[in-house]
């Protein structure tokens, strides 16, 4: 397909998506060059299509020092780990992740495309839909890199909606921000649950209200709802729904287009591997999925060539493992114990020099400081005076990453934080 | 530094670069958020800065099924393979690559920044310097992905200069294309030697003439010379210089700014690893290197988060190896034998139904077809009738990737190609 053909499919079958595409999103199409031609020549006896250094039968000729490190992989897997990955990822991995991520009652979705970590998935969404002037609504406090991914890269305008407050989660702030956008121009909404930096997952009632307001907003304009599900599954309170909003948002409204970005970074404790997945709310053979994935392959190929095969093959070993579920439960239990300890320690602070925002999930908790304190100065004092490292955010918050603190250290961490902040309030 | 401060440094100390920066290149700056703050908190006793799942002392808590695959790495290396990489790459790897890539008499350069394969390095250069209307000159025939990286992504205008002909290499075509650009507006030139798809490295005389004409062009306008050195070292003819042009182009002219993109994909036969390196023509502490790397870190973080740690740690094992040089020589010898076989086989074809472009390096050879044949139709017929897979390029060329054909199959590959093309010319 040419760019025109791909665009014609979208204009006809997905007008809301077509209206929402950026300049780059409209220009992108996957050319019929080397990877495409190599796929066509796959069965030839004399295959001289791809510039990979092989033995002449498709197997890599690795350096011995690389081969040695990867000797725990069998020959076939090692070979695949060292050769180029397909642009959209290794098929077996995509299929296994597809199974892994789907709730039982979910509607059909596309086969997830492999991205270089979750940020790359977000960046692909920004490439597709971000343009100068495009409004991107995000619940605040939010992860600072969204500003770089959307605003700096594409020139779109990030609009923080103050959803997370010490009094609770306020989805209506998102609705207000959406309704303030003039006319029927498309909007992007970033939905990050469990959230970074807040560590919050909506209750069933809040979730219903959030879904309802997005549905309403999509009556008026196309809404691209990017579900950043980095912390999928890490929900520590009974009764709080754990599944991604993506599966609830799809199939409701032609103008409401959820896109799922998830991956192994936190779910499989594979931070250094950079394996993420992007999923579209259409069945794999749906013409809109085919057209959008053509554009996505173009965006992957022109930004990073192809995703890392080595990481994909290592992750594949985990996804093939019979014990994967119990292995991820062990991670969950470790984090849940730290969560409970932190929750208890914060609850015990008498007259705290901060308000702690509601948290029930993820790997973070967030403290809102009194107005007399500057969060970044407070952060630096905690390093210098209390040997305690937190992250300051948006001028008034301190973020605690309890995922990187041992359970036994959490009380002391809270104690030192309280001590340090008190002396700063006093000073 | 803020974006304004970074830009002020470039405007003052590198006006040619400042004039050449794109909208995105000017907007990019590395924010002082999580990775920056985590670095400041590195020595704290209670470090809750980064959202990584660790034991509380900075070591990852891996899934057993992932740990098992990586058991050939020692504890420290495995830990680094599974945790986030620094945004600009793992320091020991950058230092070892720096040593690996430098000719003995080279001027000081920046410490290479790790990219997700070479394409990502090219894409960073496109992000920095590509803008709608910006002219990007490339010697033709050229690698098709340049069009996606520069034109599709940034809206710049790719201008092919017919440098590679069956009569020889014509650097003066580049000069003509550069001189045809009006006024003193900045230009980008892509220099890919050994080249894809041609497999050509300039002779000493051609190289001198190429350097001279780039130097001349830079009298009139800033010239950003992107050296795509993917096939570094794979030069099979005696007397043809093997070092990257990057080292010859730096330090000549303030308006001539070479940027080196190289990596392990071909040099270390690590196609699936996606480890590339981007090097700037300034010493590491030069204020222009510091300012540009601030922007580059921003572009990496907002596109892919961070580069893959796992691949970096595997490559590091190779770079630490005492036998690395002999290991890479073995790869070279394998390819050189195939090169000689292909060269000989093509020379023996009586009355060939193509002109073969001069080739002396890299992993490809390129055949120019008679005007009566369409290259893509010829390619499809070769698959169907001769079980022979080649890649068609730019309508009139067929590319032979001899790196993926066994030495013993090369004569037959050439025979079948001749047979197939002859029958098509006759048909």
The shape of chain A, in one word, is: globular
| Lateral strand order in the biggest sheet of chain A | 2-10-9-8-7-3-4
Low-confidence stretches of chain A: none
Determine the oligomeric state from the structure: homodimer
Distance between the termini of chain A: 67 Å
Largest sheet of chain A: 7 strands, mixed
User: Which structural class best describes the helix and strand composition of chain A?
Assistant: alpha/beta
Strand elements of chain A, count = 15
Beta-strand content of chain A: 5-15%
Instruction: State Rg of chain A.
Output: 23 Å
Helical residue percent band of chain A: 40-55%
Mean pLDDT of chain A: 96
Number of helices of chain A: 18
Most extensive contact: A-B, 122 and 122 residues
Q: What does this protein structure show overall?
A:
The structure is a homodimer of 427-residue chains. With 427 residues, chain A is α/β, with parallel strands linked by helices. Chain A is 45% helix and 14% strand. The first copy, chain A, has 18 helices and 15 strands. Chain A has a seven-stranded mixed sheet, sandwiched between helices. In chain A, helix 16 runs parallel beside helix 18. The N and C termini of chain A lie far apart (67 Å). The mean pLDDT of chain A is 96. Chains A and B meet through helix 3, helix 4, strand 1, helix 5 and helix 6 of A and helix 3, helix 4, strand 1, helix 5 and helix 6 of B. Strand 1 of chain A pairs parallel with strand 13 of chain B.
